[in-house]
Amino acid sequence: MEKPVALLLALAAMFLWGSWANTLLLSRIRFELYFFDYILGHLLAGCILLQDAAPSLQAAAADPSGAVVFVVSAIAGLLFALGSLLAVASIDLAGMAMPTIILLGVEMALGVPFLLFVEGWGSTEHVLLSFAGVVAVLGATLLDGWCHWNLQKDCAAEDREQSQLLCFGCMSSQFSSLSFWSFRATSVAAGSFARSLNSTAVTFLTRGSALPVSSIGSQQVLTAASGWANARAVKRGNLGLTFAAIGGFCFALWPCISSCVEGQTQWGNAFTTQLNASAFFLVYAVGALLAALLLLPLLCRWPLHSGVSLNFWANYLELRAWNHFLGLAGGFAHGCGSLLSLQAGRVLGNAVAMSITRCQPLVGGV
To answer: Where are the domains of the chain?
Structure first.
C-alpha cells in the first residue's frame, strides 16, 4: 500500500468515526440497548477482511504463546466498550460541553504521546507535527464544546420560562400535582424531541422514564428544596467529569495495544507471535462483545447515569427491527473506521493514522 492511499484510508476513518452517532440520534433508545447492536456491527465490520485475518489467526492459534496475544487483543476491545459506556454516561450526568472536552482532551493528550512512545518518537519534525495536530484537535474540541454549552444554556433558559408559565397556570386553575407533572413531562419531551442536537435530552429516553434529563433545571425552579437539588447536580456533574476522564484514558490506551500486538514497537516484537491489523481488529471486536455481554445487564440494572433501572434482555428483545438496524449500521460504520485506520497504520504507523482518525470532532461538529 502506498502512503497516499494510506492517508486516504485514515481520512475515511475520520469521517466514519465522526458520523456514526447520527444513527444513535435516529434510534432514540436507551444507549445500553443500542450499544449491543453497535458492538455486533463492529464484529460484522471485522468479517469484511476475514480472508486477510485468517492466516494470522491460524498462526497465532498454533503458537503456544498465541493465547496471550488473543487475551491482550480482547482486553483492547474491553477498554473500548468500557470507554464508550462511560463516555455516554458522563454526558448524561454533566451535559455535553465539559465531558466532551475532557474525554477528547485526555484521549488526544495521552493517546498521541503513548503511541509515539510505543512506536518510537521518530524525527523532531514528526514529533512537532504530531503535537501540533493534538493542539489543533483540542482547539476544535473546545470550540465544539463551547457551542454545545451555549446551546444547553439557551435550552435551560427556555425550559425555565416554560416552567414558570406552567406553574402560574397550575396555581390559577388549581390543577392537581399529578395532572400538572403529566402535562409538564409531555411538553418537555416534545421540546426535547424537536431539539435533536441536545444529546442529554435524547440519549437516555426510554420507556418508564417520567422526565428527560434536560428537565432537571426546570424541576429545580418548581421545588422548594432547590439547594439540595443544586448540590446533587454538582455531585452528579463531578461524577460525570470523572467518567469522561476514565473513558478518555481507555480510548487512549487501546491503540497502543494494537501497536504491540502487530509488532510495531521501537523495541521490536513485544510478543513472540503477532497479529496483523485485520486479525487484531477481529479479536478486538470479540473482546468488546464479551464485555458488552458482561456489562450491559449490570449497567441496565444499576445505571451509572440518571436513567431508570430496567431488564436488559427483556427490553432489548422488544426493540423494533428499525432500532436494531440503526445500531448495527452505527457499529458497522465505526468499526469500518477503526479497521481502515489500523490498515493505514500498517504504512503510516498507528501514531499517525490514529491521530488523523481522532480528528473526528471536525466531522461530528458539522
So the answer is: 35-323
